[in-house]
Amino acid sequence: MEHDRTVDNLHELNKLGWYTYLQSDDNVEERPKWLGGASNIPSTPSKGSSNHSHPGGHSSAPAVLVVIPKHDGIVDAFWFYFYSYNLGNKVLDVRFGNHVGDWEHTLVRFRNGKPEYVFLSEHNFGEAYAFSALEKIGKRPVTFSATGSHAMYATPGSHPYVLPLGLLHDQTDRGPLWDPSQNVYAYTLNPEDKVLRASEQTPEAPVNWFYYLGHWGDRTYPMNDSRQYGFAGQYHYVSGPLGPIYKNLWRQEVCQGRGKCSIRYWLPPFGETKIWPGGDTENETGMDVQDW
User: Fold this and answer.
1) Of the given ranges (46-50, 71-75, 126-130), which has the lowest mean pLDDT?
2) What is the pTM of this model?
3) 3-class SS at 35?
4) Phi then psi for 10, rounded to 5 degrees?
5) Which of 85, 170, 208, 278 could join 159 in a cystine, given CB atoms 3.0 to 4.6 angstroms apart?
6) How far is the first Cα of the chain from the last one, in angstroms, to the nearest whole number?
7) Are 142 and 135 a contacting pair, CB within 8 Å?
8) 164 contacts 232 by C-beta, under 8 angstroms
9) Which of 279, 258, 254 is nearest to 120 (CA)?
């Protein structure tokens, strides 16, 4: 990759074709500092005087908010979170699914100005909830990001799920509280001209990165790379993800996938196992930018 690329000109890489990857110059096995993101851990509440206290939750890593007005009084507010690295989970003490770069998102759907549903992304699938079902701090919903994989869940604890090679677990807990509204790039996306515009809240927010059609991380390492191994079609290192433009932003249902969208009106029981539906919404071709 050219070394002069920034979020302002990343989209220019599209001229190279669909198979574009933002390759790391560092060896991830050597655990470079950027990989862990320790500098972005949210701040803790301060205990100063009432005039100088702070609730905490600020991270130096900005979140991304994309607001899309739709039909029948619906407005979709997509919150996107980018992480520098995804640590895969283990099967029989063997780790699969590591990759450089990771995008996750939360969708809050409003109808006539009132929050109605929330979709939480989990790997290549996810779950939808009635807004009323989720835990709140004040009026705002609380979600939980899994250790390493950053999959989004509605509760803390263990979250088993089944992949073709076996049973895996995500783990969430009540760790540092992140309030993404304290550091955000906010945008509106017009469904008529499909142009992303920085909002009045953050008028200087960059926009060109959004149109980059490649992968936000390394390509799957080949089997002759000493860092790589595979079993049953699963690999220790896989390709980095595609970006927000691929997340079915024009969806009619609140769920990301095209199948049946089931809404949960209560929180799931502890340890509930999910079956991976199969398929990969982020395929290698880059050809699934829905209706763009």
Assistant:
1) 46-50
2) 0.90
3) helix
4) -60, -35
5) 170
6) 26
7) yes
8) yes
9) 254
For 203-222, give one letter per residue: b (16+ CB within 10 A) or e.
eebeeebbbbbbbbbbbbbe
> What distance in Å separates the CA atoms of residue 188 and residue 197, rounded to the nearest whole number?
5
Give whole-number Cα distances, 44 to 47, 56, 213, in Å: 10, 4, 36
Phi, psi angle pair for 115, to nearest 5°: -65, 130
Q: Measured between alpha carbons, how far is 92 from 94 in angstroms, rounded to an integer?
A: 5
Nearest 5°: the CA angle 4, 241, 98 is 105
132 close to 265: Cβ distance less than 8 angstroms: yes
Q: Give the start-to-end residue ranges of the domains of the chain.
A: 10-42+56-275
d(CA 236, CA 119): 28
CA-to-CA distance for 179 and 186, rounded, in angstroms? 14
Tens of pLDDT, residue by residue over 165-198, are 567 889 999 999 999 999 999 999 999 999 999 9
Phi, psi angle pair for 132, to nearest 5°: -65, -20
Angstrom distance (rounded) from CA 246 to CA 80: 12
User: Looking up tokens 């969208």, which residue turns up?
Assistant: 261
Segment holding 34, helix H or strand E: helix 33-36
Q: CA of 207: how far to CAs of 57, 80, 211, in Å?
A: 25, 14, 8
Report long-range pairs for 31-37 (Cβ below 8 Å, ≥24 apart). Answer: 34/84, 35/84, 35/85, 36/84, 36/85, 37/61, 37/83, 37/84, 37/85
Torsion sign over Cα 159, 182, 100, 205: positive
